[in-house]
Amino acid sequence: MQNITPSPLPTTRTAIVTGGASGIGLAIVEKFIQENIKTIVIGRDEQKLQATRERFGPLCITEAFDLNHLAGIPALVERLAQEHGQLDILVNNAGVNMKKPLVEVTDEDFQRILLTNVSAVFSLSREVVKVMLPYGEGAIVNISSMASQYGIPKVIAYTASKSAIEGMTRAMATELSPLGLRINCVAPGFIATAMSAKAMDSDPERKNKALGRTPMGKFGTPADVADSVYFFATEGARYVTGTVLPVDGGNSIGF
To answer: Which one of the record's GO molecular function terms can you name (predicted)?
Structure first.
């Protein structure tokens, strides 16, 4: 992969991106670095974090941390604030999925998905908000999914978690926007990643069905999602809060 050279503009903002060492998260980090935003990438895979740091250079700071360890999140955020000062942007991108028929989903399965996709998002957001509030400004962007827009079989826990994320987005925006913070959400549709390509290419019927109900007739790219996240995170969206934006080529309104 080609290394990223930031523009010569001064660095004035600091962002946190969870799950930023692969897929959509990596594209978000790339966009931020290109725009000279110092970006703290939180993830669990040390090798991927190291590769991300080497690719993007000094504006990229990596933190190996398992966000399922809720009790450790306050200390993590406190340390990051001490080391980096004002935290301007939080992107809650980290998440896990599980494909299994509903009757086979155990209580433990369900709770495991909610822990990563909902509880960890809430805990991290709460602690970052505490850092943002004294400055009277900040932007949080949550990553939802097309699964929250309509029913998809065999992903009951994931669907529940992403629906919760959209509800949290609106509730947070209502409470925090009067205090200067903006909270928005991006809901990606079918995005072409290495993982999705493998799944789609092995199931032509599913791939054709997905494309057939997507008015734009193609899958999106991680960069498409990253551009929308950047919009919500920066000055262009200064009068936008509590919004859920499908980035799906029209899939959620297609027939």
So the answer is: oxidoreductase activity, acting on the CH-OH group of donors, NAD or NADP as acceptor
Which residues, including other chains, have CB under 8 Å from residue 202's CB and lie 6 or more apart?
A: none
Q: CA-CA distance, 161 to 155, in Å (whole number)?
A: 10
Among the listed residues 135, 158, 230, 239, the single catalytic one is 158
- Catalytic site includes residue 230: no
Hey, what CATH class is 14-192+221-246 in? alpha beta
H-assigned helices in 95-186: 107-114, 120-132, 156-176
Domain ranges of the chain: 14-192+221-246
The answer to whether 148 and 162 are in contact (CB under 8 A) is yes
Can you tell me the distance from the alpha carbon of 78 to that of 59, in angstroms, rounded to the nearest whole number?
20
**Number of neighbours of residue 175 by Cβ within 10 angstroms:** 12
- In order along its 255 residues, the chain shows pLDDT tens digits of 556 555 444 557 999 999 999 999 999 999 999 999 999 999 999 999 999 999 999 999 999 999 999 999 999 999 999 999 999 999 999 999 999 999 999 999 999 999 999 999 999 999 999 999 999 999 999 999 999 988 889 999 999 999 999 999 999 999 999 999 999 999 999 999 876 777 678 788 888 888 999 999 999 999 999 999 999 999 999 999 999 999 999 999 987
CA distance 232 to 241: 8
